[in-house]
Amino acid sequence: MEGTMAETRQDMQIHETAPKEPVLRVENLRVSFNSPRGLVRILEGVSFDLHPGEILALVGETGCGKSVTAKTALNLIPQARQYLEGHVWFEGRDLLALSSEELLSIRGKRISMIFQNPQASINPVFTLGEQISRLIRLFLPGEVRSVQQLQGCSATTAIRHIAEEKLREVGLMETERLLKSYAFEISGGMAQRYKIALALLSSPEVLIADEATSALDVTVQAHILRLLSGLCRIKGTAILFITHDLGIAAQICDRIAVMYSGRIVEIGGTAEMFSGPLHPYTRGLLGAVPQLGMEKRLTNIPGMIPDLSHPPAGCRFHPRCGCAKERCSREIPPYRTVKEGHAVACHQDD
User: Fold this and answer.
1) Helix (H, G, I), strand (E, B), or coil: what is residue 104?
2) Contacts 24+ apart (CB under 8 A), 71-76
3) pLDDT tens column, 66-120
4) CA dihedral over 169, 171, 177, 178, signed as positive or negative
5) How many Å apart are CA 121 and CA 173, to the nearest integer?
């Protein structure tokens, strides 16, 4: 399987090195929510950089804080019931400090997001055609004029041609029917591809893809992965790719950040993470990934993810870790840079 993954990455021409200046920088993000059980600490000091033309995977079990990280980065978490600390820097501006009006020029246009539940994020009142047409008018006025001049048609006809083209790019072929449909009339997979088309309309500098391929069959999934990879290679788009599937992360991602219980426990290049994982949790995740021709049994990580209203002290993984020391239950492990671009938060080799 490792050979196949390496070949796929080579075929997709994924960049192995990233520019020094990040397009998005997340610094010490801490998010907690009020709940009947008390304060729920969802994120505890999440930090990472995202560079132009790079695909960074954010990987971990359900409930580890991946989606909250993405939504917080876009300042989409309701403020009424949350405590928030940290910074999200984009072109020298902290997105968490901007007003709703200031964010209008960034969200959707320069930073787009593909949400985990596509059908819930499609407006049920308007047809798919009405919704994509509005975005084309907003984001692609120059392209609309070009199509008008080329084909000698009205703006409405030009917008329809562009909409059909954008839908075909993500593998949606029955464009005439789709543009007349409402959200409840299409399948989950079609809704996912439609939302991907909307997210790519403005050619954003940053794309946050939250489980973008989870509702798709294998053939369509491969098509979307090639599309996202090409977006990075040709347009320099940076992608934060949120997934629980390490196999997909291995195919298209330059780096992988492994998240557990609100903290990033290890981050490094994809090849290094697969060949020499350092954190026990990373090793546990990799041991649970089936591989072609694999004879040994898959391993499992014992125990359950902790209750974030009463998280364990020290390293949050220590109750499930077979390598835990006494200090793991007392001290939060600091990040150690093992080699350039590869860091881990673990007491194991201290």
Assistant:
1) coil
2) 71/113, 72/29, 72/31, 72/43, 72/96, 73/24, 73/26, 73/29, 73/208, 73/240, 74/103, 74/107, 74/111, 74/113, 74/208, 75/103, 75/107, 76/113
3) 999 999 999 888 765 678 899 999 999 999 999 988 998 899 889 999 888 778 8
4) negative
5) 22
Q: What angle do CA 194, 195, 196 make, to 5 degrees?
A: 90
- Phi and psi dihedrals of 145, rounded to 5? -65, -40
Tell me which residue has tokens 């070009």.
146
| Least confident range of 14-23, 214-223, 309-318 | 14-23
- Secondary structure (3-state) at 230: helix
Query: Is pLDDT of 18 > 50?
Result: no
Beta bridge partners of 269: 255
Place of tokens 């006494």: 326
Beta strand pairing call for 342-345 and 255-260: unpaired
Beta bridge partners of 114: 209
Residue type (1 letter), 343: A
pTM: 0.87
Contact in structure between 273 and 265 (CB atoms under 8 Å): no
